[in-house]
Structures are given as structure tokens and as C-alpha cells.
Amino acid sequence: MFSPHGPSLRELAIQALSSVERGYDLLAPKFEHTPFRTPDAILDATAGALRPLGPFERGLDVCCGTGAGVGVLRPLCRGPVTGVDFSSGMLAQARRAHPDATWVRADVRALPFDAAFDLAVSFGALGHFLPAERPALFAGVHRALRPGGLFAFPIGAPPPVSTARYWALQGFDLAMRVRNAVWRPPFVMYYGTSWPRAVRDDLVAAGFSVTAVPLTALGRREDGSPRCRLLLARRT
């Protein structure tokens, strides 16, 4: 599916019936050829918004997957860059693509770092965390940053209720809830549990000072508001 080099429907079905970790281990060799990989347009817009705020020293890619975020961090950071993920399969692909970075296998809900980084980024990962799990994730990133350090990630605006996209996302989340109610292990991937206001509140509760920058290069909605913003959470 998706491209001649992407996973087949059967491979996607096997992934969807696995745990999140096992599913991404299976998907890893073909992940770059799926729509799940963060588009270059989002990576480039994020890098452009962060560039005036740097330079930074050490960088961390949270839920790094195959390492796309390292391409954002490397030109922004004068020091070493690290990626962390719990999928050994995804990390293996990341090591091949970026052998000069450091790769750490860990559960990001319990990050093994203490005041080690100046900039942390994350792309496309929030849907893998239930709302009750976000406080542990954000507390770990807060702890991993040095005082004054920045945690940045793009977040899309909620689609209007009147749009087909809104109902498509609601349908996907409903299907995922049904799947998790009748099948074990669960596969956590929801689109409607991490809207900007709730995420901002959790960041503030974790000790961050939060602002947002519109990523206008990614387009605007019909009301003129940006489709996507970059959340900037600073450890004060």
C-alpha cells in the first residue's frame, strides 16, 4: 500500500493487531514509504520556526522513529544529537540513516535523562499516548531539559465539526476503541485525544511556559487561522 515499496494490506493488518512496540518493529523497514512518516513540509516549517531561537547545544528527538527529526536538530544544534524510541526496529533504521547520532531505546514515559539537552522535538507521536499518560511524558521531557531548554513540536488545529475530515478522524478513533475493547494487546493511536488546548494545559502543569508560533507555510483554514502551529514549551 501507499507506494510500491510500502507495506501490503496484510502487513498493515498484522501490525494493527500487534502492540504499539511490536507493530512498529514490523513496520520499520518500510516506514519511510508510508504516510505515517512526518512529511518534509512539516519538518522544514518546524526547522524554519526554530532557527531564529537558536543556536542550541545538545538536541533530543523524542519518539524518534526512523530519525526524521534528527534532520531538524542537526543544523540547529552545535552539540551532539540523540534520538529515543522504544521500538528496536525503528531505531535500527535510524542508526542506518544517521550513524553519527546517538540512539537510545527507552520508554519515553520514563525518560532516562536529567538536565542533558537544550532543545527537544517530537513529531507525530502524541496520538500514541492516552491523555492520562501525557503528564508522565511531559514531566520526563521537562526533566531531560536544562533550565531554559525548549521542547517544540507541531500540532494541528482541530478540524471543524462540519468537515468530512473531522468525522473521518472520529470514525478512526471509534474503530480503534472497538479494536482495543475486543483485542489484546492494545494498539494506542488516536487522533482526537491531543487537541492543542488540552496539550497546552498538560505542558503548563508539567512546569513549562508555553507559547505557539503559526506555521503559515502549511496553509490556513477557511477562517484564516493556521492549519498548524508549533508549540514552544520552555523549561523556566
From TrEMBL:
One of its GO terms (biological process) is methylation. Residues 60-149 form the Methyltransferase domain. GO terms for molecular function: methyltransferase activity. CDD domains: AdoMet_MTases. Keywords: Methyltransferase, Transferase. It comes from Nonomuraea monospora. The keyword GTP-binding does not apply. This is Class I SAM-dependent methyltransferase. Pfam families: Methyltransf_25. Gene3D superfamilies: Vaccinia Virus protein VP39.
